[in-house]
């Protein structure tokens, strides 16, 4: 029996491990399947969150298998390659996928998931954009990110689509927060994601005798981080650590907090999906203004702090203001929910059009015309 070529080949990390890029790729896969597209997944995920060179080298066998499959799969002419680009040296592996896809005469879509090469021009990122070819469609997470990609690398067609499209609005509307009682931090825990700034903030709140507690959740990047976090939490009376949370546990965590604290310095940071998850629930955000975050957490939704400035003093000042002025905090809660809805709506039409373009399965009305059953992962 002749094999049926996939409509789309998706290249990038998939869970596990769980992080922003892998979960976004899983959602893209799900959305393409819902359109009726046949999707083949080439999972290039590292074996763990550990960022050591040895651990990350664990990607190599998966990448080699993916390149071989892309070379030998029949019938790929005119089909789509959807690749989530790495933020740094991983682009060395992305370039061969792009060149091979062009050799196979596929339609190329590149999703940019990192701000690291948009802070300044990088030769490897230039090679990646050139390898994608002049007809490639590039996908970013904000208008500002799209403009940087054009200015720095001369990318042609760039479509800005916020990750807010991946999160439905809260059923019945976001719950309005009326008082600050609990500060939360939710991320894969690492120094660059800001977990220790969060703990420093809670220590400062405890020293100032503020009537707030803190909740911390997420998987630790490595054993050293786990040991340091455990010791710091043990020393604080006002912080609890929930460990890694997913599904219902994650929803319960977000429902329990009133403010999201996100002092990220992560070089790849773009929007941070957790900001959308929080704001969709009416949770104001205090964050460093890394990547696209200033385009997400706009005026009135919380506070964006210059990444070059000390975080704790300004964050504590904002918490004290909200404690003293509950009406101001309630207004921030309403503004956060409204901003999420606006961000999601602004990208919604582009998201639907992009998915249909990637799937390549539309009639004149934009409806799916194939009934082929997509393969499983």
- SS element count, helices: 13
Structural class of the secondary structure composition? alpha/beta
Low-confidence stretches: 363-377
The general outline is globular
Main sheet: strand order: 2-1-3-4-5-6
Helix content: 40-55%
Report the order of strands and helices.
Answer: EHEHHEHEHEHEEHEHEHEHEHEHH
Termini separation: 20 Å
- Report Rg: 21 Å
Mean pLDDT: 90
Largest sheet: 6 strands, parallel
| Strand content range | 5-15%
Give a count of the beta strands, DSSP E runs of length 2 or more: 12
In short:
By secondary structure, the protein is α/β, with parallel strands linked by helices. The chain has 13 helices and twelve strands.
What does this structure look like?
With 377 residues, the protein is α/β, with parallel strands linked by helices. It has 13 helices and twelve strands. It has helices at 20-34, 53-56, 60-72, 91-103, 123-132, 143-153, 195-207, 223-235, 247-256, 273-279, 293-296, 311-324, 326-359; strands at 8-12, 39-43, 80-85, 107-112, 137-140, 157-160, 182-186, 213-217, 239-241, 259-262, 285-288, 302-305. Helix 1 (20-34) links the parallel strand 1 and strand 2.
